[in-house]
Task: structure prediction
Amino acid sequence: MSDHQLRTRTPAGPAPGPRAPGPRAAAAFRAAAPALAVYAGARALGLLAYWAAASAAGKDPLGPLSGRWDSVWYQRIAENGYRYTVTLPDGSVHSDLAFFPLLPALERAISEVTPLTLGGAGLLVAWTAGLLAAWGIFAVGAQLRGRRTGVVLAALWGVYPTAFVQSMAYTETLFTALAAWALYAVLRGRWIVAGALCVLAGLTRPTAAALIAALAITAAVTLVREYREERRAGPVLRRNARMIAGVALAPLGWLAYVVFVAVREGSPFAYFDVQAQWGNNIDGGRALAAFIAGLPWPAALGLCAALGLLGWLVVLCVRQRQPLPVLVYALTIVVISLIGAGYFGSRPRLMMPAFPLLLPPAVVLLRLRTTGRTAAVLAVLACASAAYGAWTLLGPGPP
Result:
């Protein structure tokens, strides 16, 4: 199949004609093994650097990984259900209803059938999901640009500046795994599978809205294009019945939790009120602009340069003509992360699931003359990510 066919036909569904049976799980694992090995090596380096720094500082290494910040909220939900609130000195109320249920449900289930504590169960979920996410990212990269690109793409995700969060009992790895495999399912024309994965993603993080939008927009463009070609709605709808079913299925997880909060709190907009109390409401970017304006000019200039680099990555993704679902997903994650009013320091990790942004750098790295040079660049990035992760985890603020 040509690159043009891959970009224009695959997201809409499988190309007509016979299709070879998919590879067995063992063969798929062997194909992904280099990506998984590189990713695991990068994360192991990060953990080793952090463990050494924590030991040198006389601090408990496991504490920040499973017992601080958001991890505590997830474990409290796993243990007691949704019933905890905190009233801050300014009178604002933080409710645990801001946190989605899939991770605490998995933590509780694992802790009940194994000797692991809730914190240990959270780490098991996060680390396992990290490998599954790397596998899914590899699968998407290999589908679009070949196996070598898939390996480098997974490696870049493992050395992302805030990749240390991938080693914490947070939801980033779980959500990214579900999103990557959902996008891969769409690229392979498996819409029901993609919709089911979206349901789980919608029970994991509110940014599942980006994944839902990716499926919906891709399906809408497909239906409109095919209707314009045939001018007959009936055959178009019948031919794309599985796609329509997958799109209809996709938002059910996210909607189910929003309805749960609404019923529990007795207000149809309760979920959005809870998020606003946490400062996670959408303000169109005003909070970001105010934050930049309040910085000393060197820091403000550096942050503007980082945002400019982010914008350039977005441009490169568009110029690469990434498939529509992949592009919509990544751009929506970026937009959601930038237009919210939440804590600024968390925004880089909130954008971490937008792994398609790393596809242009992956292609550039593969243009180096030798594999050794590509490996050397990745090694330098892994060391920088490990050092930054250790410094951040041992600091006072939340990631």
User: Anything to note?
Assistant: The longest strand covers residues 85-87. The radius of gyration is 21 Å. The first helix runs from residue 3 to 8. Strands lie at 85-87, 93-95.
